[in-house]
Amino acid sequence: MLLTSPTTHWMCSQYQMLWVHFFAVYILTGFICLLLHHEYKYIALKRLSYFYSSDPRPHQFTILVRSIPSSSSYSISDSVESFFREFYPSTYVSHVVIRRTNKIRSLLIKAKNLYKKITQLRKHNRQKNKQGDYFRLFGQDDGLIDQYGKKLSEIEQNVRLHQSENSLATEEARAAFVFFKSRYAAATAFHMQQSVNPTQWIAEPAPEPRDVYWPFFSESFMRRWISKLVVLVATTLFTLLFLIPVVIVQGLTNLKQLEVLFPFLTSILTIKFVTQIITGYLPSLILQLSLKAVPPIMGFLTSMQGYISHSDIESSACNKVIWFTVWNVFLATVFSGSFISLLSVILDPKHIPERLAVAVPAQASFFITYVVTSGWTSVTSELFRIIPLLGSLITRPFSSPDDEFEVPSLPFHRDVPRVLFFGLLGITYFFLAPLILPFLLAYLCLAYIIYRNQFINVYAPKYETGGKLWPTVHNTMIFSLILMHMIALGIFALKKLSPASSWMLPLPVLTLLFNEYCRKRFLPIFIAYSTESLIKKDREDQNDPRMAEFYKKLVIAYKDPALLPFQYTSNTDDLFDPLLS
Amino acid sequence: MLLTSPTTHWMCSQYQMLWVHFFAVYILTGFICLLLHHEYKYIALKRLSYFYSSDPRPHQFTILVRSIPSSSSYSISDSVESFFREFYPSTYVSHVVIRRTNKIRSLLIKAKNLYKKITQLRKHNRQKNKQGDYFRLFGQDDGLIDQYGKKLSEIEQNVRLHQSENSLATEEARAAFVFFKSRYAAATAFHMQQSVNPTQWIAEPAPEPRDVYWPFFSESFMRRWISKLVVLVATTLFTLLFLIPVVIVQGLTNLKQLEVLFPFLTSILTIKFVTQIITGYLPSLILQLSLKAVPPIMGFLTSMQGYISHSDIESSACNKVIWFTVWNVFLATVFSGSFISLLSVILDPKHIPERLAVAVPAQASFFITYVVTSGWTSVTSELFRIIPLLGSLITRPFSSPDDEFEVPSLPFHRDVPRVLFFGLLGITYFFLAPLILPFLLAYLCLAYIIYRNQFINVYAPKYETGGKLWPTVHNTMIFSLILMHMIALGIFALKKLSPASSWMLPLPVLTLLFNEYCRKRFLPIFIAYSTESLIKKDREDQNDPRMAEFYKKLVIAYKDPALLPFQYTSNTDDLFDPLLS
């Protein structure tokens, strides 16, 4: 009796502690949902007020039509003209057919490289002139410059030939930008199925002119669909196969395994400092470095999926990187790595909560280190932009001072998934290892200050979507909540606190219902504008005298940069001048 | 050596037989997909040509707007008028606000019952008059008729009071039918989000006037959403709990279990004829009788989900009945019944193919009997319409000869799921027990002849959807194919024919890709008409002199039957006449 009494007391108090955890989960979920709702509403209102206060923009009056049926007797341009003249006689303004400019683009790259070579040689000559050895190499370099100059002017002629109307007529892609008189007319055109055949005349809202991704205009319905499928398969394979380095990293965190693999290291591994570095810092550093390559790869893969704008590509790549991170960083670490064990977890859905409950708390210390190594370092290196800094230091000697400096833009699919993943860590470890929270708080404060500074002083936006990326953030937070509920469910089941475990079941259902409500209440605002807002905005413009000028600009707003006239030869002529004088 | 050689030879030949099965699965899938594609295309073209050849119909020019925001200063009618006058000034014609008519409807039912009673009493009296006992009961019945007549006229006054404009003004529902000048204008209105708040002014295409389901006009966004969720939960629970009678049926098929439960039956159960009936016929008969109740129950549940048309209700109920049948007839029979064992199968997705491969072939004889008992009998009873025949035989003595005879319409959600389920049986058992095929063929031939006859001579369509139900058929066939692939996968894995098993994996993927292609190519045609067709059709009408008259009719096309004037008292007055003469 004397022995059991403290045990039961201890068990009772432990049970009570578990109930505290239970209520913490409920309260946290409610609080986060409240914040999410508030934020969704706030950003939706911001998006609307941004639209109301914006000047007329070309992309609001434009749609992109793809899969235009080709016929032998008419050109694409003619069939676009006749189709929209027939069905939108009062609102159709004009159109621009998109051309295949791959050839011109490769010629332009060649020309740019030649131009760079010529400027470098020229600089070299000048330096030599200063050093006084006029005659030894002058002739050689001069000959080279002449040769390159000839090549350049040849390429330039070639480009002009390709840019001429006659040859462009044969390079019509089956896609066109179509311009309308009003925002409402453009919106009705892309909301409705145009043709009897739903795979032809597919219309979508046009992106901003500067946002258009010109290089990859996949045209036909089938080709786009197939390329999309191929890219999705490739992305999935990449996400799954990436686990191999993660496994190696996981091996490094286990000292004993390391000693077995490399017996000669035993003497070094007994030094406390070394073991601390290896177990604490090195694994996440390696992981982090290999993860650096992921966003560009995902961006590259997504760009082949047939999207027409940079914003769509980055938004889709952002989603891919989030899933990649959840799978390869969170789940792979939690279930310590092997692909087979991960798959077996996924294929046995009944036991996922219990397995998570066993595995997730065990990795708390790893993720605390991860927040410090990956989070803190990434955000501070963001302040100094170390990689671009090093890059510019290395390339500066080889670049000419006339090179234009491009203001960089923030790659969404690199930074947003990282911040969201730390949110996921915070939510899932909130009631398992609250020690992670101060580290995360420090990260988030740092990130807030630093990104605020970067947005104001460093980056310039490449395009403006009006908050279209917010639903991604919302969805990721909802996923984090559901993951947290599954872990809680598993833990209460493991600790044999079955009432808590069964009272945990309504929570994911309620969260999903909340998400469904938000999807219905807010998501449509992020997809398209309503009749009400469009017509109000159109009426405001009706009496604006500047609209006539706007329509003139509208028609020439969408121009493939490969079709713009280019200036290298005149520049090189300038470069020749001092040589001849 | 002599012993092993025939064994290996036998094994080889068995392996070859399995490969025959393998190729049969591939060929059948390809053939069915080809047929499905052909049929989808054919029906899409039929739908389009039906649209092109149709006269102007009110529902083509009308949208239904729900969740109209209510304000204290304006009536719903005023706000609809001002909203559409503002945003669709050139195409808006008029609108009809929907009224809450529950009270009137219940009064009308009372009036109808009273009217029936009066006519019956009247008939009774006449018969008595003929029999000569004029004076014994005359006064009593006459008093009753008088009493009922007074009540009826009271109710009638009450109904007229409720039907008057003044009292209807307070009963405005937050929904309205809005009429437009052209089909295209109506289509743009329901394709686009109307209001800044996506949960207000929700527009959808209007159903045909005769197709409108007036009783249940759930109004607000939240109420409809909640009722939808509740109905979905109720349907799921109903589908799951229905298994109890199925378990009993399964118990009956097992003679030994029956003898243990009812020892006194042992003597009867030894008679061969009785055992044959019990094992072969009785189980599926009981199952079939209890299944008869399912379509009406599903129809009733679906009607509370907030649909506005009979066609939507029947189409949604049809889907529910299909899932119900697959779960409760196919899966429950295959995994012999218990709810827990079924759930354990679903929650262990890795082993579903193997479990199916073990269980499905074992039930082949049950399903052959099922085709005969359920299929053949249902289709032949359809010819005689036995239940309505019995019903009319029983009720005839109590009904008056003046009762209007309503031409029946085919309840889609009763008959379509049954035919589709036999399709599923045919596809899944095609390579397991081809013996089922002649029985199915007989069923399908019978069904073709009988339903053709019924459509031409018996049923009258209650509404016309233009083939909108076809995607349901297509999806069910695709599901059947995937189920068949899973069974084949399991069987080849069980028989240790691993190359066949792994070469089976691409087939479901290809089938799903085919389905995805069909969704993109054909499904949009079944959801809405394209700009091209709408505008062409509108232009045809522009010069039609009958259009002025059509617009007049359009405005009064949507009228709640509860608000129509009604005629009972004059009829009863007629009934009184001969009594007074």
UniProtKB/TrEMBL annotation, chains A, B:
Key words of the record: Calcium, Coiled coil, Ion channel, Ion transport, Membrane, Transmembrane, Transmembrane helix, Transport
Recorded coiled-coil stretches: 111-172
Transmembrane annotation, as ranges: 18-37, 229-248, 260-282, 289-309, 321-347, 356-376, 419-451, 472-494
Organism: Arachis duranensis
GO molecular function: calcium-activated cation channel activity
Gene behind this protein: LOC107481195
Keyword Transmembrane tagged: yes
Domain CSC1/OSCA1-like 7TM region, first and last residues per copy: 228-492
Protein name per Swiss-Prot or TrEMBL: CSC1-like protein At1g69450 isoform X2
InterPro entries listed in its UniProt record: Csc1-like, CSC1/OSCA1-like_7TM, CSC1/OSCA1-like_cyt
